[in-house]
């Protein structure tokens, strides 16, 4: 099925290159969750994530003729999204980051409350981690990118990706309380 | 004797499915509390909720619209530039003929016809280089 999916994607890319707006829309729809999901993690703000998703998709569609298929289309798109996000960061460097309101813990089981708390701790630890380290962790831990893919994406050596990831994990581990640990 | 950081990196590789956990790493893990704690903590680190993300049709639509507009503007600019360059060159040709520089015009054309193909390998090589950089 995967091959069929790839063939379908290849056809859409070809048609999008020729300026077919239906193919362009379909291609972006297929990758929307990936791009928006990643941007929501790094920006922690729905509106910003949507703005950057739109900007990244526009850039990708303009540059689609330059996509040579040496990497996966989704990786190429994430690379563009990462750069669009960096530009946004530069623009709003002095801006106070509006954090997403965390959902209330009402009606959740104890396990879910602990998990929510852990997620918040991870988010606040991640907020202190600079780029590209933050994106490297998110793409590895949440999206399962390989070291090789990350190395291509961030123009870094695989060894550097590994050490950056290890450093981020250590930093997060120090911040995240284990479920069986008591708060004191 | 390897230090814990090196073992932690190997544990991380194994957890993320980059490689199998080695024998020396296994035996270190059995005796080192710090590495055990790193391993367990990494396994327990939640990967976020994988809720369904609905496509925002407005975002996609605006992106496609903007991309098509920008591409069209770029194409129109390139078409105008090409037209201007063609007109300029034709005009230059006429000007040279009218002013009696037929010999110069002939040499110019000969230069372009003979020199053009020589530039081709350089262009191809440059394109290949750029392709490798993108990979
Ligand atoms: Zn150890």
Residues in helices of chain A, as a percent range: 55-70%
- Count up the helices of chain B: 5
Reported CATH architecture of the largest domain in chain A: Orthogonal Bundle
What Rg of chain A is obtained from the alpha carbons, in whole angstroms? 18 Å
Principal-axes shape call of chain B: elongated
Q: Provide the succession of SSEs of chain B.
A: HHHHH
Give the DSSP E fraction of chain B (strand runs of 2 or more residues).
Answer: under 5%
| Count of individual helical segments of chain A | 8
Q: What's the CATH topology label of the largest domain in chain A? A: Rna Polymerase Sigma Factor, Chain: A
Describe the structure in your own words:
- The complex is a heterodimer of chains A (184) and B (135).
- Chain A has 184 residues and is mainly α.
- Chain A has helices spanning 2-17, 21-43, 46-62, 73-91, 110-127, 133-141, 147-154, 158-175.
- In chain A, α3 (46-62) packs across α4 (73-91), α6 (133-141) packs across α8 (158-175) and α7 packs across α8.
- With 135 residues, chain B is mainly alpha-helical.
- Chain B folds into 3 domains: 4-50, no CATH class; 55-100; 101-135.
- Chain B has helices at 4-15, 23-31, 33-44, 57-98, 102-134.
- In chain B, 10% of the residues are buried.
- The model of chain B has no long low-confidence stretch (mean pLDDT 88).
- Classes of the chains: A mainly alpha (184), B mainly alpha (135).
- The interface between A and B is large, with 46 and 35 residues.
- Zinc ion is lined by residues 4, 7, 28, 32, 34-35 of chain B.
């Amino acid at each position: 099925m995967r091959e069929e999916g790839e063939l379908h994607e290849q056809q859409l890319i070809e048609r999008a290159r020729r300026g077919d707006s239906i193919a362009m829309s379909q291609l972006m729809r297929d990758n929307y969750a990936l791009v928006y999901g990643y941007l929501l993690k790094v920006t922690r703000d729905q509106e910003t994530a949507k703005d950057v998703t739109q900007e990244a998709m526009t850039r990708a569609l303009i540059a689609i003729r330059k996509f040579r298929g040496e990497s996966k289309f989704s990786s190429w798109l994430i690379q563009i999204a990462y750069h669009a996000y960096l530009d946004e960061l530069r623009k709003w460097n002095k801006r106070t980051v509006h954090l997403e309101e965390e959902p209330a813990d009402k009606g959740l089981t104890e396990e879910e409350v602990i998990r929510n708390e852990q997620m918040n701790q991870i988010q606040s630890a991640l907020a202190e981690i600079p780029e590209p380290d933050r994106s490297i962790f998110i793409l590895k831990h949440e999206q399962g990118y390989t070291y090789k893919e990350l190395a291509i994406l961030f123009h870094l050596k695989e060894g550097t990706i590994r050490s950056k990831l290890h450093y981020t994990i250590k930093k997060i581990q120090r911040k995240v309380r284990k479920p069986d640990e008591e708060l004191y | 004797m390897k230090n814990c950081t090196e073992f932690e990196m190997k544990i991380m590789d194994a957890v993320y499915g980059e490689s199998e956990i080695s024998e020396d790493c296994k035996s270190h893990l059995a005796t080192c509390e710090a590495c055990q704690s790193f391993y367990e903590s990494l396994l327990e680190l939640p990967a976020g909720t994988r809720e369904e993300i609905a496509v925002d049709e407005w975002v996609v639509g605006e992106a496609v619209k903007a991309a098509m507009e920008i591409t069209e503007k770029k194409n129109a600019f390139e078409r105008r530039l090409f037209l201007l360059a063609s007109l300029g060159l034709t005009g230059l040709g006429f000007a040279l003929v009218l002013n009696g520089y037929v010999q110069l015009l002939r040499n110019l054309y000969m230069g372009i016809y003979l020199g053009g193909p020589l530039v081709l390998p350089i262009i191809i090589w440059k394109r290949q280089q750029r392709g490798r950089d993108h990979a």
